Amino acid sequence: MPYMSYPYIVQPLPYEYDALEPAIDAETVRIHHNNHYQTYVDKLNVTMRAFPQLQGILLEKLLTNPHLVPPAARESVQHNGGGVMNHYLFFNMLRPYRDMNRPPYDIEVKLDKSFGSYENFVREFSEAGADVFGSGYAILTQTCKGALLITTKANQDTVLPYGLKPLLLIDVWEHAYYLRYKSSRVDYLQRIWSVINWDVVL
Ligand code: MN
Questions:
Q1: pLDDT tens sequence across 32-76
Q2: How far from each other are the two terminal CA atoms of the chain, in whole angstroms?
Q3: Which domains does the chain carry?
Q4: How much distance in Å is there from the Cα of 183 to the middle of ligand 1?
Q5: CA–centroid distance, residue 81 to ligand 1 (Å)
Q6: What pLDDT score was predicted for residue 111?
Q7: Mean pLDDT, range 5-34, rounded to an integer
Q8: In sequence order, what are the residues at sequence separation of 6 or more whose Cβ sits closer than 8 angstroms to the Cβ of residue 43?
Q9: Given this model, what pLDDT does residue 67 score?
Q10: Strand spans (E) along the chain
Q11: How far does the centroid of ligand 1 lie from the alpha carbon of residue 129, in Å?
Q12: What distance in angstroms lies between residue 91's CA and the mean position of ligand 1's atoms?
């Protein structure tokens, strides 16, 4: 997990805006990274300025332990702090487009063990993402016992309060795909496997 605390910033992309073409278009990456992600950062910083006692605590700790956050700040930390964490993870798990992108052998073995095959994992994960009602995320997580589990979260919720570690997280909000794919989240989820950076996933 990234080491992030106040003051929060938008972490720079580890690739160019157009590097994900044609899976994700440059305009979508630019708006998503510079506007949507930035808005969560700005709103979280506003909340943090009002609650100085939270400023020295890592974001991961605040999200994992909501009871550490005063009730008046809890909703903002959940929504905006979740938005900051989720967008950092999402953008960092992508890499420049690669035709026939596949996980390295050792990761494929892990996916085989849990899901039967890489193809089966992709199918189950994509179905989970397509089934998210409204806005949210599809997430491959690791339980405290080390098992791999596909789960989903609504809005900007994270899996952290549930004791799960996010390994691969895909943003299925419309802002992540609408310019290119319009209402077809399924098509977006079909193409995104060409830009997954498996080196940072597992
Ligand atoms: Mn997003």
A1: 999 999 999 999 999 999 999 999 999 999 999 999 999 999 999
A2: 12
A3: 25-92 (1.10.287.990), 105-200 (3.55.40.20)
A4: 15
A5: 13
A6: 96
A7: 97
A8: 76, 79, 80, 83
A9: 96
A10: 136-142, 148-154, 165-171
A11: 14
A12: 9
